[in-house]
Amino acid sequence: MDPATAIAELEMAHATLGSSMQRDIAAGRPPELDAIPGAVLRAAARHQISCPTIERLVEMITSRIAATAC
Questions:
Q1: Which of 6, 37, 49, 61 has the most neighbouring CB atoms within 10 Å?
Q2: CA nearest 38: which of 59, 10, 17, 9?
Q3: Which ranges of 1-70 does DSSP label H, i.e. alpha helix?
Q4: Which SS3 state, helix, strand or coil, does residue 7 take?
Q5: How far is CA 6 from CA 9, 17, 42, in A?
């Protein structure tokens, strides 16, 4: 896939487009961290692949949820 094509599609998306995880967090529901990035991290661990960016994103989301729960 050509990265420029993917970026062009994202730039054409409307401003209110968001992910289901974004909508869950905004509504105060727990996001699907185990189902979405958790599955990727478990598969990576099985294959001994490092995923520092996904790990960092999960930590950021978890921290944000903890901060809003107080």
A1: 37
A2: 59
A3: 3-12, 20-26, 37-46, 52-69
A4: helix
A5: 5, 15, 27
CA-nearest of 42, 20, 39, 33 to 66 is: 33
**Three-class SS state of 53:** helix
CA distance 64 to 24: 13
pLDDT (0 to 100) of residue 70: 66
- 43, 37 in Cβ contact below 8 A? no
Split the chain (70 residues) into runs of 10 and give each run's mean pLDDT.
90 85 87 94 98 96 82
Which amino acid is it at 63? S
Structural tokens at position 51? 């995923």
- Name the DSSP letter for residue 60: H
Contact status, residue 1 vs residue 10, Cβ threshold 8 Å: no
Instruction: Quickly tell me which residue has 């520092």 as its tokens.
Output: 52
